[in-house]
Amino acid sequence: MTMRNSFDWTPYRRSTVGFDRLFDFLETSGSGAENYPPFDIEKIADDHFRITVAVAGFKSDEIEIVAQQNMLTVNGRKAPAAEGEGRQLLYSGIATRAFERRFQLADFVRVSAADLADGLLIIDLVREVPEAMKPHKIAIGGNATPTLVEDKQAA
C-alpha cells in the first residue's frame, strides 16, 4: 500500500511573489528520493553548518562537489576496477554504486571547506549576509546616515 501525498499549492502561488523556488522545492521533496548515501546535517553555530555524507569506499578523486546558486550537488563515481588485480569477491556488501545527492541551500550560504576522512565526506557551510542586505535604522529628517541594526539573537 502506497500513500500519495499531494497538495495543491496554486492558491499560495497566486498570493505570493518571489517564492516560486520554495513551492517547487515543496512539490518535489519526498518524491521517491533515494536514501543512498546516508548523510547528517548539523548546525555548528548560528551561521555555520556541516553536512556529513557517508561515502565509504570512495576516494577523493572519485567524488565531485559542485556549488551553484542555491544548490549543492555531491556526485560519486567509483573508478572501474583494473583488470588483473587478482581480487575475487565471494560476497559484495559494500555499496560502491554511483550516486548524486542534492542539497538546497539558503540565500548567502557558501561552501567554506570540504574534507574526506574515515569514509566520511565533511562539507562546511557558512552563511554570510552582505552588509547591504542587513537591516539599517533610518533616521527621520535631516541628512543622517543609516546605522546598522545589530542582530539581538547573535548577542
Automatic annotation (TrEMBL):
Residue ranges spanning the membrane: these are: none
Query: SUPFAM superfamilies from the entry?
Result: HSP20-like chaperones
Pfam families named among the record's database cross-references: HSP20
Which residues belong to any copy of the SHSP domain?
30-143
- Would the keyword Cell division turn up in this protein's UniProt record? no
Matches recorded under InterPro entries? A-crystallin/Hsp20_dom, ACD_IbpA/B, HSP20-like_chaperone
Which keywords accompany this UniProt record?
Answer: Stress response
CDD domains, A to Z:
ACD_IbpA-B_like (cd06470)
Q: Which family does it belong to?
A: Belongs to the small heat shock protein (HSP20) family.
Q: What protein is this chain from?
A: Heat-shock protein
